[in-house]
């Protein structure tokens, strides 16, 4: 085993932990299926047969249509060849990173999931952080920054870039000849982020790349796709990078996505949202009882950050303490990829889990926090 | 759309061709399921439920065991943490390429699937070709080459590296402090390649990396995994590169692989092999009727190269002519990644297709070849 320190490594560790501990690390949906969703999964053999019978381009276009319509993206370039179905949004990001000019400088939202920054760095790009504050204040970098990378909504903070704000940013990138790259992996969970982004970007004349993801919406055991869409203005060798990475996503998975996306517009969204919000409430109540609070009370995505007061135990200590109680969560330092110290006062729990798991984890967190605080402040005899 | 020229791009083009033409490009299995395999696919909803109930590490270990035992790899490091389940063998190769020291020089078998060379080049490595002739003559490079990359069996030639030969190569790499990287994606199709490679490499004391693939064996519509296994001697940051690429493969796919691998040892192998060999015979008979021959008559993998005599139409011309008749195949120049001219006299057909498709394609090839030859040699009036 080699040394690892990124968030996914901690998620892998939690996933492969053999002692039966609770895993609230990754943002993948691990909620129970609704009855309708369960009926869809029961039709998998039929989908398999359908994938054998029908032409791949038809299956793919249908999935793009159903999914993008379900999340409000009515102006997405369906049927133009400019939407590529990847195994995952991570692979889509890596394809973009590979297609960008080597050595170029891009600005990346900060904090955000460390993997996004890592993939760009590993491909030889120079990164500068764009803080959420600067982004909200419309303080965007000009050249030599040639691209701006947003996460929308942001992970872990849940920050949604409002429509008029995105329009201003798009116009900024047009003025400065920059590319705008948006990872919208959590978009499906948040109605506020479901305005027609493609229309806004095209109206501004932007050179845009958008990454969509089905992996955060449904508990489908990694049967998912990441979509990589790009503007007609984009001249990067994205198709080449795609063809170096894969031949095609699975048509069976695309058929599953089609069915789940249709259900998403027929109550599936509200069903999942209610489960997540019930879990968020459980976390809030458990931590407020010991004087802690949610860092992002307005967040609507399926993870929650908890703010830890200055002077008390930090998230790396609390993370270890919770591990010793059999609960995996994520300390937030790695999300602050350009300034890990900045994340020490936050810890993240995934809410896309059965209620009992979230409730137990939140209570464990509260108890651990109290114990650690007492140990720190207890008089020494 | 950007300019593309690799083999996968041609495969994507064939897959997404909307006019209903025949696709004999990619080596992915698109045969009919056997009755036993169909029964396994029918159990997908049960597997989904099982994936929800059981722990991921147990499901993964079971899949590794079933698959690696089914293809004779009894000494693979199951349960050590040194076998990583990736979405595909391509992603496994890219993870290896990322983990290798930047700027190092590796030797790669030649010809072979261009994607292998491309992934290494894109990650900043320097490549030198190792011809099949030199490999067979045991003329292997020493330093500064720090790694040797084999495809076993090779694609498209079907060349199998015999056991004693691999042992000698492993000892060569130990003497020279080199790594040995083997892509065994087609191994499951060929008994001769199923000797226990892990035992041979470990006995020699080699620093090895092995890539296995379930994607070439079963017509499961891209529901597949690539396995990335590495030696205890390997000190590369492979786990880090893996965690940058994905969290985990799908446990549903791993359960499907387990069931299909068990069936592979109970008649599945013979069933698929009979279909492929019937198709190879159809190709041979169709082309021999017009004076052409199989380039690799001893090949046992699910693709066949056809040799084109000097002076006649080359494979790029024949490829275009077949396209005009609605048949997608692969010209072989890109397989000769270090010398594209060297591949002009070969054209490749996938045999993992329904008989009618292969038979039609072979007859189209024969007819196209005759027509092109006549056009070239016809007297001008």
UniProtKB/TrEMBL annotation, chains A, B:
Cofactors, names only: pyridoxal 5'-phosphate
Residues annotated as domain Aminotransferase class I/classII large: 40-360
GO MF, one annotated term: transaminase activity
Family note: Belongs to the class-I pyridoxal-phosphate-dependent aminotransferase family.
Gene Ontology BP annotations: amino acid metabolic process
This protein's name: Aspartate/methionine/tyrosine aminotransferase
Keyword Iron set for record: no
Keyword Phosphoprotein appears in the UniProt entry: no
Alphabetically ordered keywords of this record: Aminotransferase, Pyridoxal phosphate, Transferase
